[in-house]
Amino acid sequence: METLAVVLEAPERLALRALSLTELGSADVLIDIAFSGISSGTEKLLWSGKMPAFPGMGYPLVPGYELVGRVVDAGAEVRGRIGEWVFVPGANCYQDARGLFGGTAQRVIMPSARALPVAELLGRDGILTALAATAYHAVAGGKAPDLVIGHGIVGRLIARIVVAMGAPAPTVWETNADRRDGAGYTVIDPETDERRDYATICDASGASNILDTLVPRLRKGGEIVLAGFYDRLSFAFPPAFMREARMRISAEFTPADVIATNALVEFGALRLDGLISHVRPAADAADAYPAAFGDPTCLKMVLDWSHV
Known about the structure:
There is one protein chain. With 308 residues, the protein is an alpha/beta fold. It is 21% helix and 27% strand. Strands 3, 4, 5, 6, 7, 14 and 15 form a 7-stranded mixed β-sheet that branches. Strands 10-9-8-11-12-13 form a 6-stranded parallel β-sheet, with helices on both faces. Strands 1-2 form a two-stranded antiparallel sheet. Helix 5 links the parallel strand 12 (218-226) and strand 13 (246-249). Helix 2 (129-140) packs across helix 6 (255-266). The radius of gyration is 20 Å and the shape is globular.
């Protein structure tokens, strides 16, 4: 069995080509993908060739871990899942390419346990399940942040989840004036903020030099949550020492985070709409990827696989 897949042949070199799939196992499902998101974090690093050493890293590879689609076939142990609408957090099912995350393809095979049911009514917004769960993981791991850095898609989701969980609405810093459009919380230019007593600051910018900016904004005993992906971080020790600052790294989401996030969506506390800014046919992937990373108006790029 074959599938069309987005393949990163080398940094900044992409092709849409046919790949052979591994065999469907007794506990596997075959999923026709409807929509796939392009990550502006890890996939940007893969695209640029700046991804740090990571298990499974190497080219050619299939990227992608933000997908929704329908189960169209299944192994003998999980036949009852045929017809389900599911979220796909990546796959590793190709015979002639690495599956680093591995989901951006016309169809994928994966263990049934990793295909997570989501509401079909969400449509393409369902691809935000991974980012929403990642944002939830950052918020739920400690005290809710009262300052969020960056109003990109992860920063927006963090702020929305803080509000959805019933905590006081955070302040959000955003340097780009065109992205200061928060709903239910305040988004400001960091240059205008004079506060120096934030209890918890959550960074969603991924900027490697951010700590020296944030530490002086903490109150004594305050915490900085690192919710981005960084190559290397450094900071001046004396200001952090004087504040007895704490730092927490928020890693990958878990199935429990997905369940909790879906519950917030189902109860109407969390909305995922208004976050996808660009949609392109999957056939246009070669143009969509650089646009996703280089177009300042692109908050989230999604590939539509319906006409491939």
